[in-house]
Amino acid sequence: MKQARAGLVRRWRRRGGAWWWGIVVIVVPVAVIAAAAVSVLLTFVDTGDPKNQIELIKTGLTVGAGTGGVVALVLTGRRQWATEHDAGERRLTELYVKAVEQLGSEKAAVRQGGLYALERVAQGNPDQRQTVVNVLCAYLRAPFPVPGTLPSGRSRGIRRPAPEGAPRVVSDEWSAQEREVRRTAQRILGFHLRPGTSDRHPADTFWADIDLDLTGAVLIDFDFGQCRANRTRFDEAKFAGDATFRQAEFTGNTRFPGARFAGKAWFGGARFGEEAIFEGATFSDDAVFGDITAAALMTFEGATFAGEAWFRSAKFAGKAWFREAKFAKGVPAEAGTPSDAP
User: Fold this and answer.
1) Within a domain: residue 152?
2) 64, pLDDT greater than 70
3) Cβ neighbours around 168 below 10 Å, total
4) What is the band of 246 on the pLDDT scale with cuts at 50, 70, 90?
5) Is residue 175 part of a domain?
6) How many domains, in total, are found in the chain?
7) pLDDT > 90? residue 83
8) Domain that holds residue 218
9) How far is Cα 280 from Cα 260, in angstroms, rounded to an integer?
10) Contact 12, 79 (CB under 8 A)
11) b/e per residue, 51-67, with b = 16+ CB within 10 A?
12) Averaged over 80-97, what is the pLDDT?
């Protein structure tokens, strides 16, 4: 039914509402119904009075005219709906394009405004949420130069052109402002990927079935605790400060190959529904994987643990590989938890 109505609207638009198309859609059905009504009345209502026959004909024509009015009303309503729907789609596209353009601004406040605008677009339009998340991830994948250095290298993320006449050396002020913008993007992702305490009735702000691609991203004090996502990629991501994945749920494949954790890495109670790959990851401080649940392969092949490695009560339903992994403070701890565990 929906396809038929959509086809009708498309045909009407292609014909530009031509008069002959109106005849086909309205006049012909009305004429057929009126003729059928007159025929039925004259056939089944037995009267020999010519005046009564005329009244029956008038009644049949009235039925046909009423039907035509209903058809015309339906078509008018449908056309109005299509017009309003198209206008809504145009407004959504304009908001989206404007928000993305704001992310390229040289002003930090404008970039933050673009992030919040994208958040509103996604919250009000569930079918746009993955697209908005992709834009947020692309922003976080953009280069984040250290103060006093020159921006260099290629990136898979959003690139912002340097302001005309701007110095090539990145200032501490720019770095601090950009750090806050990136934290805003991280907070938006974390806030909308937390389903809440009830699986049956997740929070209205929860965005379900989201994939994340943060390959090569620079993430600052990253908080993914109690979040839920589908396929996630943190290949060669750089985590500045502590990174929290406590009680997070990864329903799809999870990838951290080559990721670098500068601070503590908290994965306590996390659940991995499919493969979890930490090949070649570097943990410069403590790495806490206590009480995790891994439903499939989990590999730390070639990973480096410079601090304590905690795997108390970890459950591996599949294989757990630690081949060629390096533990600076001995094998993974089987008992106990860090004193400063969150």
Assistant:
1) no
2) no
3) 8
4) very high
5) no
6) 2
7) no
8) 211-342
9) 9
10) yes
11) eeeeebeeebbebbeeb
12) 67
